[in-house]
Specification:
It is a single chain. The chain is of the alpha+beta class. It folds into two domains: 216 residues, Cytochrome Bc1 Complex, Chain A, domain 1 (2-Layer Sandwich); 191 residues, Cytochrome Bc1 Complex, Chain A, domain 1 (2-Layer Sandwich). Helix content is 45%, strand content 16%. The chain contains 16 helices and eleven strands. Strands 1-2-6-3-5-4 form a six-stranded mixed sheet, sandwiched between helices. A hairpin with a 7-residue loop joins β9 and β10. The longest helix has 18 residues.
Length: 447
């Protein structure tokens, strides 16, 4: 009876989530447009994404995609980077970008009034369609990237993340370091960037997301303006990414680092965007390590044993299977215990599944908090761009709460047992902790 009452409550919460009306169309040049009209505030948010992330770096040119995206607003259409920044500031607009393994993009936030929006959109058009890639500026930005790469070598969090990525995605494009490495970045030049831009930033590959105080006709005009002079589609590179192979055995890597704390990352390939098990995994992961103090990992590792301040887990779905990751930091002398407790908690979770009380709590929290995830144009734009880029259903936001409410404990257990294999995890430990006897089954790698 209690379970039935809670399901009824979850259904009401799901039904009360505000519906989002997403309009979608394709321009004559092949660009895909996703639009949500909202006249509550005089604001306009626009993003344009391309399949131009680090997974598309040539093997010998790691960091090329990232540096190309970084350079877009560093001079374009006859304007310097300073002139671009000043012109945007004059109309109160903000231009930013985002970049990951799958995609690279530019985001504009501006007032919707024509006197403000038109100059801002004109600058965005120049940045997208006429980047200069001037060699002196490329040299300057290349030096800044190298400085960042050098600095990261002294950060245990970065060392752990880099090693984890390489081992989870060994031999696969997702294993590329987003910013490249020092030697590869040092070799990049303006010619390389122009070539990558011409082959990856075509109108046919563009996904435009818009939300805010404009009509559909205005949104269509803006989308056309932003893509009219992009490179020819005939030059476009393939957007295919090789599938991520499953791990065949456990891998342990210890990196010696002078620190009183150990950084620990555990994980493996997870799921791709659109996987039918994703919602069950999402709900289950809230219980495992995504729900803060509601999670089992937090309860077992922090609350019961005081081994860490924070421990988390998450899935990062991508075009192909992205990472499933557990992360924590602990005292060097507690490394073995913290690692053992974390591994056992994961193994128990996969083997035993979740309780009815845990499931109801997770569903209530996820559904109750969902409206806050789309309560601003900027947040909604991020979802809109994701839906467009990964070709998810237009009703994705409307149906997500209902799907969460419908998840059963059996579905969570089956989904985790299908996708997560505790005996085949990559484990990376960065710190001063001595090696343990269990490391005899690892690759023995150290640095």
């Amino acid at each position: 009876m209690r379970r039935i009452l809670m399901l009824c409550l979850l259904s009401v919460l799901a039904d009360n989530a505000a519906a989002v009306s997403i309009q979608h169309w394709e321009l004559a040049n092949g660009a895909q447009v996703y639009f949500v009209e909202n006249h509550d505030l005089p604001m306009l948010d626009v993003s344009v994404d391309f399949p131009a992330g680090s997974a598309y770096d040539p093997a010998h040119q790691a960091g090329l995609a990232s540096l190309t995206q970084r350079m877009l607003d560093q001079g374009a259409g006859g304007m310097s980077d300073t002139q671009i920044a000043e012109a945007l500031a004059n109309v109160g607009a903000q231009l930013s970008g985002h970049f990951d393994a799958d995609r690279a993009g530019i985001v504009l936030r501006t007032l919707s009034r024509a006197d403000d929006a038109n100059p801002a959109l004109k600058i965005m058009s120049k940045v997208l369609e006429q980047p200069a890639f001037a060699e002196p500026v490329v040299e300057r930005e290349r030096a800044r990237v190298i400085d960042d790469l050098v600095a990261s070598e002294g950060q245990p969090q970065s060392l752990a993340a880099i090693a984890f990525q390489k081992l989870v995605f060994a031999g696969q494009p997702y294993g590329h370091r987003e910013n490249g490495n020092i030697d590869s970045v040092r070799s990049l030049n303006s010619v390389d960037l122009k070539s990558f831009y011409r082959s990856h930033y075509s109108a046919q590959a563009a996904v435009i997301a818009l939300t805010g105080d404009v009509t559909r006709a205005q949104a269509n005009q803006i989308a056309g303006q932003l893509t009219a002079n992009l490179p020819s589609a005939s030059l476009a590179a393939s957007t295919a990414i090789a599938p991520v192979p499953a791990l065949q055995q456990a891998v342990m890597k210890r990196i010696v680092f002078p620190s009183q704390q150990s950084q620990i990352l555990i994980g493996q390939p997870g799921v791709a965007r659109g996987d039918p098990d994703y919602v069950a995994l999402y709900v289950g992961n809230y219980i495992l390590g995504g729900g803060g103090f509601d999670s089992r990992l937090m309860h077992e590792v922090r609350e019961k044993r005081g081994l860490t301040y924070s421990v988390y887990s998450y899935f990062m779905p991508m075009r192909q299977a992205g990472a499933f990751q557990i992360g924590l930091q602990t005292r060097a002398d507690k490394t073995a215990q913290a690692l053992a407790v974390t591994q056992q908690t994961l193994a128990n979770f996969v083997a035993q599944g979740v309780t009815a009380a845990e499931l109801t709590q997770a569903q209530h929290s996820i559904i109750g908090g969902f409206p806050l995830r789309i309560d601003s144009n900027q947040k909604l734009l991020e979802y809109l761009a994701m839906i467009g880029f990964y070709q998810l259903p237009l009703n994705y936001l409307d149906t997500f709460p209902d799907k969460v409410a419908a998840v059963t404990a059996e579905q969570v257990k089956l989904a985790f047992q299908t996708h997560i294999h505790p005996d085949r995890m990559v484990t990376v430990v960065v710190g001063n902790a001595p090696e343990q006897p269990s490391d005899s089954k690892s690759d023995g790698a150290t640095k």
